[in-house]
Amino acid sequence: MPDDEWWRDKPTKAIPVEDGIRASTQRGDIGRTWWSRRFIESLEALGLGGRFERGRRYARAGQVLSMSLSTSIVVAQVQGSRQEPYRVRIGIKAFTEPQWFEVEKALAGQALFRAKLLAGELPIDIEQVFAGAGLRLFPDSARELSMDCSCPDWEVPCKHLAAICYLLAESFDADPFEILAWRGRGRQQLLDGLRGSIEQPETAHDDALVDVLDDFWGAPVTAPAVTTVRAAPDAVLDQLGPLPLTVGGRPLVEWLRPAYRALADADER
Predict the structure, then answer these.
(1) CA–CA distance, 148 with 49 (Å, rounded to integer)
(2) How far is it, in rounded angstroms, from Cα 16 to Cα 223?
(3) Distance CA 6, CA 28 (A)
(4) Which residue of 15, 29, 113, 140 is most buried, as measured by CB atoms within 10 A?
């Protein structure tokens, strides 16, 4: 037996962890939402599903000590049978800025998509939006994923990597924006991009100069006639409403009207 395979025939038992990250789903399939189930299905479609059973047990037993997700990469520590935890990394290709611009423009054009995202959900047809931009939200090729673990198991994914995949699915349940963040777009950045991509009503533009050169030195265009409506000089008093002041038994407004009319006649002269 080769020296690097001595551990295969040796039964190993993981060192128990008291405060590890434990999968909330202890029975049945992991993943409550369509997007987390779709993530697991995409991995199984790559031929990785048959190796996940032991990883699911690790996830449910709380053997994962830490896990963090950032653009393109997830890093974690998983406690195995050795004293030192294994270091796990799962990488995925992030989309470029121009690619995200196309996606945001398409999402912004659909009110239902915007409403779902603002409500913290992924629209059921969001994969079609990415497909329209020539992209896949979930990995469809093993070449899109980079997986490595510091354990001696040569299989990829090993049970430690598989455990992280299941916990990732549950984290996507809680916050679907983590899927998008993994691909390079955080929640606030995406929502800001959607607001910026909403098309504004088109405004009328002046004719291009080249189109009006022939008429530029011609006769000036006659401006349309403007009809002026002249208001009565004492109309402003009607805006005051009834006033309680009276002079000689007559409302003050009635005393002021002749004065306003006299001033207007003086201006015309």
Answers:
(1) 17
(2) 89
(3) 34
(4) 113
From the list 159, 177, 156, 144, the residue with the least C-alpha distance to 69 is 177
Question: At 246, is the secondary structure helix, strand, or coil?
Answer: strand
235 φ, ψ to 5°? -65, -30
Give the 3-state secondary structure of residue 149: strand
Token look-up 């008429």 returns 215
Question: How many helices (H) and strands (E) would you count in the chain?
Answer: 11, 6
Q: Which amino acid is at 212?
A: V
Residue 48 exposure: Cα atoms within 13 Å on the Cβ side: 26
- Residue 20 near residue 64 (C-beta atoms within 8 A): yes
SS3 call for 46: coil
Q: What is the rounded distance in angstroms from the CA atom of residue 47 to the CA atom of residue 51?
A: 9
| Alpha-carbon span 80 to 228, nearest angstrom | 89
Amino acid at site 10: K
Q: What angle do CA 45, 47, 50 make, to 5 degrees?
A: 110
Report the C-alpha gap between 239 and 257 in whole angstroms.
13
Residue 78 pLDDT class (50, 70, 90 cuts) = very high
State the average pLDDT for the chain. 78
Strand arrangement, sheet containing 145-149: 64-70, 73-78, 86-92, 145-149
Give the C-alpha separation, 57 to 64, whole Å: 11
How far is residue 250 CA from its own chain's centroid? 69
Mean pLDDT of 179-207: 74
- Indicate the pTM of the whole model: 0.67
176 CA to centre of own chain: 10
The dihedrals phi and psi of 251, each to the nearest 5 degrees, come to: -60, 145
